[in-house]
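Worked Example 4.2. Read the sequence first, then its structure tokens.
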Amino acid sequence: MLYGRGTERAALDRLLAAAAGGRAGALVLRGEPGIGKSALLDAAAAGAAGWRVLRAAGVESEARLPYAVLSQLLAPVLDRTGALPGPQRAALERTLGLADGPAGDRLLVGLAVLTLLGDLAEQGPVLALVDDLQWADPESAAALRLAARRLGAERVALLLATREDAGPDPAGLPELPVGPLAEPDAAALLAHLAPGLADPARALAAARGNPLALRELPQGEDTGALPPDGRLRLAYHGQVSRLPGRTQRWLLLAALEETGEAEVLLRAAAASGLDAADLAPAEERGLLRVALAAGRVTFRHPLLRSALVDRAPLADRLAAHRALAAAYGPGEPLRRAWHRALAATGRDAEAAADLAVAAATAASRGGHQGACAAYERAARLSPDPVLARRWTVEAVEAALEAGEVERAERLALAADRPDADPVTRAHLLFARGVAEFWRGENASAHRRLTEAAALVAAAHPGPAARVLVQAVHVAWYDGLPAVHRSLDALAALPLPDGDPLGPVVRYLGAALGGGDGPTLAGAERAARAAGAVVPVDLVLACGAGLVPGHDAEVLDLARRLVREAREGGAFGTLPTLLFFLAEAELFDGRPGLAADHAAEALGLARDTGQPLWTGQLHGFQAYLAAARGDSEPCREQAAAAFARGGAGVPWARWALGLLDLGAGRAEDAHGQLAALTGGPFGYQVAAVRAVPDLVEAAVRLRRGEECAEPLARFERWAERADRPWARALVDRCHALLAPDEFAEELYRRALARHAEQPRPWEAARTELLYGEWLRRGRRKAEARAPLRSAEQAFRLLGAAPWAERARAELDATGGPAAGSGPVRAVAGLTPQESQIVRLAARGLSNRDIAAQLFLSARTVGHHLYKAYPKLGVGSRADLARVLPALS
């Protein structure tokens, strides 16, 4: 029976009821040690009669072992992995040691967990419980959080329990605080536990509403101002100290052994001169329980483990680690190596080598955080400074792979010495540069990366090229001179013929530096033929194509790379590729598709912890909202981009300028756009393409002469882009600035060039401006055709303020409005619904769509069901007729 937990039980009941009805959910229970989180998990399991219940718990000493908690949680259902999509199955099986091969993208493991839970829920509701999340290995915790964030229409409930001092949950999952019992409830519990207690008031005061303290504290003992775990540890110290010495040694072995496997513990005990009878006093007092059928040893409470380790003399701890290291079989190399390392009292070459081998195995299965810890310890143990330095570099690399850039930087700083060999120094400088880039320290990051590449350029030009490609990316946010320095260094590298990065390097030089070079398609073909790692080696080239205006080529390549990233499980690169795809779709006049892909990219960037791209995508989404005239979403997204700083700021400024321009606030628009196009980052994609908006705002303020310099730069850019749509924008700008006798010819020329290479948004903007010019010249009948065309195009694009502006102008001419058009049929879809509907209309099954969008099949079906009435269709077969409006 639970005392005083009505509120918490009600929250759990709501979670289970929603999950049973097909609305999955996750909840984090947070509270101090002993407060009753485990009891609430037990209550949830008891209330889930007929459900499949999966359960696991973190163990403090096991936190360094990759995927330990996930292995424990999924052990009963691993026979179901064969039904997972190929990349997800491979990632999960390799990380759990069920199959050989290189580890897949670590975040695919989380998606595999999501899919597996969803598949299980097709047979009946599923409850997954994880206790002591604060001690879960980081890899398992990351996979569980990713799955929790993407739960949708599955009959799945996920409950995670963690300590209140474990820090806020980075996934942003809903939390339920579990606090001390109210005094009447605490008194009722104490009366149940100790009905004959002489002085209950003293015990209540000592326990302070903590249920475990009411059970464990010696009756009436005054523990002063100790925190809850301190009071409980003190109580456990007292209980253990009254046990025989041999029993205490047995308990220490059990406390240090992570898995609780009775077979391992019995072997370790025998090696220590102990037998099963020595454990009997602890069992009699209920300190632990041995389940022979399951082969498990479990403690009454995790704090008891900590208390046993804390109080044990050093000699006993070392002896216990030695015994445990000898007790593990060949199937547990990492556990064996760790215990051997923890038993070392000084430099130990053999223990260090074992730990390094185990670390390499962990890294090969995607356990990069565990591998980092093992390599770091191996380096400290090694008496050989060369090996120690090598293993430190491996620790740095593992930390970078795990996304722990601060840890990588700390290790690199400690190991970076001028007398280190060039390759080692290059690795360490690279890690420091990446960490600085993540913090937005672009100038110093660029210096470190450039220095790292220079150290190995002569002997290892291929790896140096990869570092310099990263340096180009960093330089893009540092300033144009830094970009040119990186491009010069890339061009000077002695890359051998046939190096897969050669075509990419040549294209970057042409696209970003203005020189001659291959086309984007040519660079792609040559790089693939030379064995480039796709999509990784082509990512930056794809984005760079937008700089000189190669939008159609970027659109084509980005579509291919996104598909390949999905199929190959290159999860970490998808936010970048989807952003480039969304930009190209926007410029091509497909804002609906751009919004879908940007929303997906933002979710993935959050999941993968990529602050650079979350900032970019907030700024980009602000622009999309500005074009639609959605003021509040635009300002919220822009504020988020400004808060991130750096990469997202140009798009955010353009968004705010466009929002003001569409609303007729020319002065405000001019201020935003002038700061963008005239600032130090005026070479960036958003800044260059915002110049026509700046010209329009300046003309409305009768300050057209102020935009002469940015317009001249834009003309040079358009000449280099050599695309009809770019020349059309130049003509439109000149038409705005020209005297009336020249303006009409410029407008007509712009419209003719738009017709050569249709871009609905820009063509409609030109038609609107031309129609306004004609109406102001009292040529109302002639103005109606371009204004009507503009209004219809804006409505199809969802650009409400611009459509209303065109309608107002059309009304002023006395002409009828163009009508709302088919856009109303799809306007109510969310980005995710829109994306799912488009894929379903192409004939993909729910399971295919789920694998592509990293959702569950049931969630896909749920979104389709919600979309049908919005689209006015009754079934999947009817979707084909609405596909043109969606596209």
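Now turn to a second chain, presented in exactly the same format:
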Amino acid sequence: MASHEPDQIREIDALVVGCGFGGIYMLYKLRRELGLTAIAIDKASGVGGTWFWNKYPGALSDSESFVYQYSFDRDLYDQTTWNTKFVRQPQILEYLNGVVDRYSLRQDVALETTMTAARFDDVAGIWTVTTDRGVTYKAKYLVNGLGLLSATNVPNFPGIENFEGRLVHTGAWPEDLDLTGKRVGVIGNGSTGGQVITAVAPIAGHLTSFQRTPQYSVPAGNRVLSNEELARQKENFEANWDQVRNSSVAMGFVESEVETFSVSDEERQRIFQRTWDEGGGFRFMFETFCDIATNPEANEEAAKFIRGKIAEIVKDPETRRKLTPTDLYARRPLCDSGLYETFNRDNVSLVHVGENPIRELTANGIVTEDGVLHELDVLICATGFDAVDGNYVKVDIRGRNNESLKEHWQDGPTSYLGMATTGFPNMFMILGPNGPFTNLPPSIETQVEWISDTIGAIEKDAMGWIEAKPDIETEWTDICADIADQTLFPKAASWIFGANIPGKKRTVMFYLGGIKEYRSVLDNEKASGYPSFLTQSDALEPA
């Protein structure tokens, strides 16, 4: 805009930033249940959040379909007709659009609108949020549903500007891209990379996987569910969701209480094999035995089983060696639709860039350290995201006393409950730092409902605004770190701790205590009248 004056100022009760699972449900709660004036904005041209952007081939939920949806409306649940174990991206996007229309929310959604700055007025108790559309929102409440995994990470390889082929990131997939017969390179082999490699290999002329770190992955076991299974899911709605909310990872299965070495070798192999055959990464880590994520020896038993499967599946000895991990099985649990089998194809090759790094990009492709040019028409970056806080620190968000959120988080992102941050009154986050590490829709519902109840309490009791007390934020951060340190996850370099972003400080970003305990903390906070928060009158009292 040429002018510094906004074209339009809109005064509302609440602004929601982001229109994925979290933003949609938040808008529903604010409008339909609390009766507040609320708008949701999103930089995308459609709703759906993660599922709008991630349209890459093979995009699939890795939570099972019967728990990868909302549970707040039983009729909506009964009318959702997903018939496969896992859900593909087009189905999820169609579902979220249907939810928006079902509750007449589209009129309150402003698309292709990006938050460029947000400032809190200490005196008025109002957030002023500027956008790139010349519209400024003034709102008492600011709820950020920016997404855990939406700030794309494109590595800055030497010569990247020289590449004359098509360069794309899986998190911003172009709909006009046809990979049929093309020479395709894929950088990255995490959850997304595995899905892309498996889906693209059958149509590509040649696919080259550039792998930095070998991964442990198990079959997804995706399949069409029988009518009996589907009917049982609907009939057991209450019991299923009660189990989810009282579990740890909220994935829809009962987590094991059996220790790895409490059974015989034969029984252990049988349990691993049964779960391998059933499919699902979280099932393999948490339904088999209770100590895989905490006991190094137990972890090695699970890792050894997966290594044995890689040895059985991958035919070429050198490819098998490169694909076989030797470290802890302690990253986000992965599952796939035939990943290791894909490397048996004649048109698929593997470059281990951990051993043979990428030297540069040229007009025609990638040159590795050994001097080999890998010719490419398309280079796909499945290189993940600046997770959790990445989208927050990109925006100039300023709270009380003009404090910058980026400065507040300079030693790593902090919060109370993953939803509130000291010095930023009436600013709530859905899936903010140090929220629960679980299947996301149940965590999203839990957080949105708590935020909604909290806003309702502020309105009812005329509190003005509330913010988390500084010592409480520190205490929650310490709790999250202490719980994480009781697991093996911090010992693996993964995006869960920010290790995928060069220069980013390694820090805990999740509460690993499980959704049951997390919900208990939330219930206690609410029932006690929010003792961990300062109110406007508290904050403005003379010292």
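Notes for the reader: The mean pLDDT is 92. Residues 41 and 56 are 24 Å apart (CA to CA).
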